[in-house]
Specification:
- The protein is α/β, with parallel strands linked by helices.
- About 25% of the residues lie in helices and about 25% in strands.
- The chain is elongated and about 100 Å long.
């Protein structure tokens, strides 16, 4: 095998083999087919990246198709959110398609299957049909309605379409093989009666096609060359091919190309739930503030938290394409956003747990403007930061007494204030309960950063960030931890995933930030020096700044759980 072929993933190898065997590159066509019954999450980004990535690689069209066959769970809100998320990730679809656009064609094909003796109306209860289905080791039992005449089936199916029957009274089933070792081939349901308004077709239909019937034939109508899906659909491939091959007989002149289904492993992430049904439960029960809550693994939640399209696409590229299921450590996703924001986020200063610092030998009433670098990685220039006698520093950055390994401020030792002066701890003031309320220090006037003096070049081991008390802007900072405390909250047979909710997944704190952030806009991302990466939340206003913590500078979770 050539080195070039080795570098291809297995899906690309399949495509290359098809091209080598005579497939015209003009016939390559892909699709991303979400069901609009919830918001997209990080697990979907793998499927999105694979399909759109192939489109980019082969200069082939990619459709965004909504498999909207269940009006009981689907909403226009989800359609709009999916379109927004795919666009935000940087992908452009060729055609916006809906399975509901094909309802008449699907119905006409179903009628043709009935005429060919390949489908029948079953009038049993769902419980009776389930009992007859058999087991993986025992064959199923034929329905007593399996041998209804073609005329009776056509009459019943027509009346189903007209709404003459109640929900649950009849279904249309494909007539395949009740003894097949693949239970999906044991006369699967093609249509059910569902008297609910559809978000696009309204009340035009009271029967709706099932996913397995709709999905493959939608691929066929759109002339998709490679129908790519996750591994749980591998057992469905035989049924996909059965439907495809029978419909091809009727429509090969109109639709000459037959799609092929191929499967890849899903993206599973530690400390994360990927089920839309379970994510919906978190929303409905008020565990989170909505689908875009920054603790959610949804794309909208990640976007609101401060993740970038680049970081997510780099994450998907690193994960790669495989046939084997595995769980990806969420630390990899966090690494990718740190890597991106380190290059693109400007540096600022904010104090999250403030204590007052007074420079006793700095002239009262005096102020000065210091120059601070924005982001050296992107040559973003500098900004102006006000400095005065009274500052805020982090409470954790001071101890009255400390050992030699403590390189922050303590009595009798020196540290540098970022972009400013070297200071020396002198004493502190406490309240009646012993809590430190004020720290006093002195500064070296000749040690100003960048001033060119010998004192300014003097090295000290600690550097602290700070904010001028007089100029500080009050802000709410939302600090997030993982929503679940268990690495695999969905894997316990004896416990519900809700039992592993982390009660400390959100902490809202009052912080102070430098005045340059007063003009920050929603979505702007920053590195709060020494603390981590933060972005301006959607709830933020000019009157009340709100920041989300995207990720820390280092992975503290691993250390905590050793």
């Amino acid at each position: 095998m050539s080195e070039e072929k080795k570098s291809l993933n297995f899906i690309e190898q399949i495509i290359e083999e098809d091209l080598a065997n005579g497939m015209d590159t003009k016939n390559l066509r892909f699709r991303f087919p979400p069901e609009p019954n919830g918001y997209l999450h990080i697990g979907h980004t793998k499927a999105i990246g694979i399909s759109f990535g192939l489109g980019e690689k082969y200069n082939a069209p990619v459709n965004l198709r909504f498999d909207d066959t269940n009006p009981a769970k689907e909403e226009q809100e989800y359609v709009d959110a999916i379109k927004k998320d795919v666009s935000w990730l940087g992908y452009q679809w060729k055609n916006e398609c809906y399975s509901s656009d094909y309802f008449q064609q699907l119905y006409d094909w179903a009628v043709q299957l009935i005429k060919d003796g390949k489908a029948y109306v079953d009038s049993q209860t769902s419980e009776a049909m389930a009992e007859q289905k058999g087991t993986p080791t025992e064959p199923g039992v034929a329905s007593p309605h399996r041998d209804r005449s073609i005329e009776e089936n056509l009459d019943l199916f027509t009346k189903m379409k007209k709404g003459e029957f109640e929900e649950g009274s009849h279904v249309l089933r494909a007539k395949i093989d009740m003894t097949s070792p693949n239970m999906l081939l044991r006369d699967p349901i093609m249509y059910r009666i569902l008297k609910k308004a559809h978000h696009r077709t309204g009340n035009d239909w009271v029967i709706y096609p099932m996913y397995d019937w709709t999905h493959g034939e939608s691929d066929y109508i759109e002339q998709i060359s490679h129908s790519l899906c996750s591994l749980e659909f591998k057992p469905h491939r035989d049924l996909y091919n059965w439907f495809r091959d029978h419909v091809y007989k009727y429509s090969k002149d109109q639709y000459p190309n037959s799609p092929k289904q191929r499967e890849f492993s899903r993206l599973n992430l530690s400390y994360t739930i990927m089920s839309k049904r379970k994510l919906l439960k978190l929303v409905e029960e008020g565990v989170v503030a909505g689908w875009d809550d920054p603790r959610m693994p949804t794309i909208s939640g990640l976007r609101r938290r401060g993740y970038t399209p680049t970081s997510i696409r780099n994450f998907i590229e690193t994960v790669g394409v495989s046939k084997r299921e595995n769980v990806i450590d969420v630390a990899l996703l966090e690494f990718k956003i740190r890597e991106d924001l380190n290059k693109t986020a400007n540096r600022v200063m904010g104090v999250l747990n403030p204590v007052k610092l007074v420079i006793t030998n700095y002239p009262e009433g005096e102020e000065e403007i210091l120059i601070a670098e924005n982001n050296p990685e992107m040559d973003a220039g500098s900004r102006k930061v006000p400095f005065s006698r009274e500052l805020y520093i982090e409470r954790d950055d001071f101890k009255e007494e400390a050992n030699r390994k403590y390189f922050r401020l303590t009595i009798g030792k020196e540290v540098r204030l970022k972009n400013a002066y070297i200071i020396k701890g002198e004493n502190c003031i406490k309240d009646e309960e012993g809590n430190i309320t004020e720290i006093h220090c002195t500064y070296d006037p000749l040690s100003k950063s960048g001033s060119g003096t010998e004192e300014s070049k003097r090295k000290v081991k600690g550097t602290l960030h700070w904010v001028s008390k007089k100029h500080a802007v009050k802000a709410e900072v939302r600090v997030y931890d993982r929503l679940f405390s268990d690495e695999a909250p969905d894997s316990h047979k004896d416990k519900e995933f809700m039992e592993f909710l982390n009660p400390n997944s959100l902490e809202k704190i009052e912080a102070y930030v430098e005045p340059s952030l007063q003009s920050a806009s929603i979505g702007d991302r920053f590195q709060f020096q020494r603390l981590g990466y933060f972005n301006v939340d959607d709830d933020s206003t000019k009157e009340k700044l709100i920041f989300n913590k995207t990720v820390g500078l280092r992975d503290t979770w691993a250390k905590m759980n050793k």
